[in-house]
Amino acid sequence: MAHFSGTVTLITGASSGIGRALALEIARLGGNVILAARRLDRITIVAEEIQLLGRQALPVPCDVNRDGDLEAVVDLALKKFGHIDYVVANAGFGVAGRFENLTLEDYRRQFETNIFGVLRTIRATKSSLILSKGCIALIGSVNGYIATPRLSAYAMSKHAIHGLADSLRHELRAHGIAVTLIVPGFIESEIRKVDKHGVYHAELKDRIPKWLRMSADRAARMTAQALLKRKREKILTIHAVLMILLQRHLPCFVNMVIARSGGRKLPD
User: Fold this and answer.
1) Each residue's pLDDT tens digit, 24-70
2) Catalytic status, residue 145
3) Of 59, 86, 151, 245, whose CA is between 20 and 30 Å from 132?
4) For the chain, what are the domain ranges?
């Protein structure tokens, strides 16, 4: 199996879900990790776990919505490690609700994190990645291909991420930087316990059936290999692969499935 020996990876949203699992997977494969997230207590615990694996970790509190935070993370990372080889723009959340019940501020909040947070991450790390000829991973979604009811804000943001990945791939190729689009289906994470204001609620029940959810650890293993192989795109979960294929070749069938489900399990 390919490994990350001698490399440094910066992960935003590293306190939970795919971000946390990916940090640990990269450490298992020999890499050092910069952990960026708002919850310092959580990434400090992740850093301790990475150190037990014999690798180095740098936990840095960071809000991707705040100008200057990513630049500060990069400065600290370069002082400690001297280089950055991989960047995973993982921080994000989902705004759910019927169009008529969402405000323009809800849409702005969704784009501030899911789009402008990603742009801040790329802008802050681009110079380092040019030097290392590294790789950027952007986190898309099946909703970046198939928009479903009551997720218009989230689907808009993920369609934008898919477009950004395609465009950047052409622009950054000349610098030797690869752009990998990770497309998760349903993954075991806290994203469905975060409200439209970005606030986590531990008591909320995940409405997605367990049999449809891939573990964060498995998603992390697949993501790590996609980074090492500098893949153009990696779709996670067989259900996601199936739905995207159906959307490409039998869109009427997908529309029928969505119409029948009507997004009933999602909040208003």
Assistant:
1) 999 999 999 999 999 999 999 999 999 999 999 999 999 999 999 99
2) no
3) 59
4) 8-261
